[in-house]
Amino acid sequence: MNVLIDRFDVFAGGFWLTFQICLLAAIGALILGAVVAVLRISPVPPLRAVGTAYVTVFRNMPLTVVMFFAAFGLPALGSNADFLRIPLLDQVFSRLGADLPYFRFALIALVLYTAAFVCEALRSGVNAVPPGQAEAARSLGLTFGQNLRHVVLPQSWKASVVPLGSVIIAMIKNSALVGFFGVAGDLSQSADQLTSAEGYAFIPVAIGISIGYLIMTVPLGALLDRLEKRQAVAR
Amino acid sequence: MSQQTSVLYDVPGPRQRRITLISSILAALLVVVGGYFLIYRPLDDNGQFSMDLWGPLVDPSNENFALVWERIGVGFGNTLIAAALAIGASLVVGTLLAVLRIQLRSLTARRFTGLATPLAYLLRGLSTLLAVVTRVCVEVFRGLPVVLTIFFVARGFPEFGISFDTLWYLVIGLTVYNSVVIAEILRSGMEGLPGGQAEAAAAVGLSPLQTTRLILLPQAFRIMLPALISQLVVVLKDTSLGFIISYEETLNIGKQIIGALGNPIQTYLIIGVLFIVVNYSLSKLAQYVQHRLARGRKTAGTPAQNPPPAALTAQAEGAGGI
């Protein structure tokens, strides 16, 4: 069990990096997912088609393939995803500004993939609002944008918070994949590094890595359970 | 859904439709021009559209065409084999786990009154302990990334001197995760059933195990079928993680093809399309099943009194399947 104490810095560093990528990807996916959700319910047919196509493509492709696309496709387009080197952010999230682009590629893949699920979670919330609400808003003369902003979205938020939470939990778990795509030093890559290259015993490393993920997923899951129970009572 | 979304806005009139048409033509033009300069030109400059790279994948007269597609076929076959085994195993293990958890729950409520006091306390303690242990196992395996369970299985088993084919590592890793998820789906399905079902079963003299097996489980399967099918889509997608432990599935074959021909973008495009087609048909199947179930339930006249948790129904409606 010594590895847990001796190499605590590796575990802590891995946790911090995984946490960083999860936080950034969650923010990105929530924004992009909200945009796609608005596209999918918008009054303009071509925009709806774009939103539907996006969701169909990214929901049915394994994340692995999306990651490969980001890792091979972006360099072929001549881009190292430098637009993600946002001046102030890369002070805090140092990997954003790193010369090796894999962190940024992995981030883009994770955001693109998760946004499709975020969109579906938001849309299921919008669908849960009783139709009479939107009809009443329309009969008052509110436009589509006003309708969403003042009437539908505030109510749909309640119904979509639990599905959104499960999407975020799934995203945290999916982020384990980035370690196998060239992002050095995250939790899953540390597991590989410690066991195969540095020859530490397998079980303690596995326990340490597992704790790292469980710290993020289990409390979030418990919180969601509580929210769900409370909503069930309120309904 | 269609009636839901159209509720948000008025049906567009002629003027609105004209504006929509014109602006979408303009936007399409913009996209085409942008796509040409930002995507087509850089790719073309790199020679990504040359027949050297595409030929083996799309041109039947190419010398490598037959071989490449044979390999992709082998890889996809392996993907399907692993997915089928993992799905079968997780359904069996997941069902057992769900039944076990329901049984333990009723066991912890029992007070063992016919027995001597110390023995009764011992049994009660034991059943509580078992319930807690299964609960912790479920929480842990549900919270771990499936990549890591596969990785741990492939690394951990050889440590104990047990080694199989990589196929079995992948199947075991996928099963550990998905059986727990399926168990939770089934359990919440059973707990969402109207209480009268279990009470009636007890009243006609069925034992708790019989109640679960004959009354609760079949209904839970029925209600949760859409969620179960979308979990199957997840399993199929997760099979692609087999490339981490170098199981010869579609992506791994893709890697070999790329190693030989040097055309990553083209190969991954084809593989992506393959996955999309298969998974899209599966999710359509899930939707179809759900519609049929909804119709069947209406005619049978037995509304679900306690609907299953929102997260799970949302999953069935298509938010899940991650």
TrEMBL record, chain A:
Protein keywords: Amino-acid transport, Cell membrane, Membrane, Transmembrane, Transmembrane helix, Transport
Family matches, as InterPro entries: AA_ABC_transptr_permease_3TM, ArtM/GltK/GlnP/TcyL/YhdX-like, MetI-like, MetI-like_sf
Gene3D superfamilies, sorted: MetI-like
Main location: membrane
Pfam families: BPD_transp_1
Location relative to the cell: Cell membrane
Residues annotated as domain ABC transmembrane type-1: 15-224
Topology within the bilayer: Multi-pass membrane protein
Transmembrane segments: 15-39, 60-81, 101-119, 159-181, 201-224
PROSITE patterns found in the cross-reference section: ABC_TM1
Family: Belongs to the binding-protein-dependent transport system permease family. HisMQ subfamily.
Name of the protein described by the UniProt record: ABC transporter permease subunit
Species: Micromonospora echinofusca
From TrEMBL, chain B:
Localization, UniProt: Cell membrane; Membrane
Region: Disordered, residue numbers: 298-322
Topology relative to the membrane: Multi-pass membrane protein
Superkingdom of this protein's organism: Bacteria
Key words of the record: Membrane, Transmembrane, Transmembrane helix, Transport
Similarity annotation: Belongs to the binding-protein-dependent transport system permease family.
This protein's name: ABC transporter permease subunit
Protein species of origin: Micromonospora echinofusca
